[in-house]
Amino acid sequence: MYGFPGAAFVDASGRQLGPDPRREPESPARVTPAPGRSAWAGLSYAGPEISGARTATPAALVTPPDEREPLRVPWTAGEVPVGGNESTVSLTVLRPGPGA
């Protein structure tokens, strides 16, 4: 794998909520997990209750990492910012390991 994962919040019908996440200014490196190992990328945003952003509660986070069929992960973490002040969602590059 190389670079940034694809990611988008979607509603129950699969429509994207808000703009594409912003990529953090980082230099990507190739990540090749050994069998049974993993890789991760960070996803962050300002708390909507603090930032005053317009919000929505996604049904899923869709991650299409160079695939024809996206992986749809149920979203259970509540509201996310989708517009207005401080509504930016950010992604980091892929890194080896189980995550931070």
Word description of this protein:
- The protein is mainly beta.
- The chain has one domain.
- The protein is built from one helix and ten strands; from the N terminus they run E-E-E-E-H-E-E-E-E-E-E.
- The strands form four sheets. It has a three-stranded antiparallel β-sheet, with no helix packed on it.
- A hairpin with a 7-residue loop joins strand 6 and strand 7.
Write the layout of secondary structure elements.
Elements: E1 8-10, E2 22-23, E3 39-40, E4 43-45, H1 48-51, E5 54-56, E6 60-63, E7 71-74, E8 80-83, E9 89-91, E10 95-96
Parallel strand pairs: 2-9
Antiparallel strand pairs: 1-6, 3-10, 4-9, 5-8, 6-7
Descriptors for this entry?
100 residues; mainly beta; globular
Describe what is shown at a glance.
By secondary structure, this protein is mainly β.
Biggest β-sheet description = 3 strands, antiparallel
Coarse structural class: mainly beta
Can you tell me the number of structural domains? 1
The stretches of 5 or more residues where confidence is low (pLDDT under 50) are none
Q: Which H/E pattern describes the elements?
A: EEEEHEEEEEE
Shape: globular
| Gap between N and C termini | 18 Å
- Percent strand equals 25-35%
